Amino acid sequence: MSEPAAIPVSQPLVRVEQLCKSFETGDATIDVLTGVDLDISAGERLAIVGQSGVGKSTLLHILGTLDHPTSGRVTFRGEDVFSRSSSGLAKLRGESIGFVFQFHHLLPEFTSLENVMMPGLIQGRPFDEMRERAERMLREVGLGHRLDSFPDRMRFQPERHPPRLQPEQLQDTFYQVIQMGC
Question: What pTM value is reported for the model?
Fold first, then answer.
């Protein structure tokens, strides 16, 4: 599998322009997103925060190509993603977009290391390369000592001994899973 082309420094990895999303509910139209503009650079981390019902999940679904905007444009590496077919969008999600779910979805029969390796292995990347990359990523977030831990041994359970990972540490494992696909 070839590596994606590098993007020019001046161009964001993701660009959202005048994004709108409305839902029809019988007689009414609910405008959830109206004119959202956003640039995300390669390697940038950001948080989308707000009160319940303001459109955070809707925006994330659109950025993840799980839903289409009513109007506006989303580009990834300069390409208008919604110009792709359904199968093209599925391919983009499989190769370039990762998801961190609110509820942890590690595969219980695999170790932390194996879970982080999984996206790259699914893409057909070499096992040794994925193992090395996953180990490095887990060490970067302070989980080097948990490479061989299974998810059920990583849950935060203060009443049990030995101590388990804190929820934010478990979240870091998921963050590394999504990074493997980028």
Answer: 0.60
